[in-house]
Design the sequence.
């Protein structure tokens, strides 16, 4: 075989290029790494994720520091666009035990573009599987569906 017939491909991270079979959208490695930092090191309070400008992959949008509140998290979600989000909820049980639950939010406001809502909906399950350790999922279209009381009720 002649060397001119050989084709060399550049190295790439396969997981960052794996596309969702339903929507064709990939998950960037930074999403998984940042989530692991939240889960294992507990150095983030929340994360938001979005589709990149070309709608080719999910990328990290915002990172909320450990000192930020649930109110800060809610304000970080756009009024007119979809996002995936993760919130690390710390609480104390009636038995005085300190616990934490990781919530996954599929934020899809009613005023978002229909095509965008469809892309986020068709990619959600694949993306969520990449984030091992999600304990509670909420699908939210309005801020009233993610009130503090709802969060507390779902944690127990």
Sequence:
């Amino acid at each position: 075989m002649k060397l001119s017939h050989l084709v060399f491909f550049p190295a790439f991270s396969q997981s960052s290029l794996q596309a969702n079979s339903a929507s064709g959208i990939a998950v960037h490695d930074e999403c998984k790494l940042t989530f692991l930092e939240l889960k294992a090191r507990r150095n983030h309070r929340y994360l938001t994720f979005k589709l990149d400008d070309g709608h080719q992959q999910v990328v990290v949008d915002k990172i909320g520091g450990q000192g930020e509140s649930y109110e800060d998290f809610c304000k970080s979600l756009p009024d007119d666009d979809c996002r995936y989000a993760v919130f690390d909820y710390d609480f104390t049980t009636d038995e005085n035990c300190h616990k934490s639950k990781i919530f996954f939010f599929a934020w899809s406001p009613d005023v978002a573009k229909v095509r965008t809502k469809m892309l986020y909906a068709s990619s959600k399950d694949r993306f969520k599987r990449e984030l091992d350790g999600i304990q509670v999922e909420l699908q939210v279209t309005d801020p009233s569906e993610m009130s503090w009381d709802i969060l507390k009720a779902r944690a127990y």
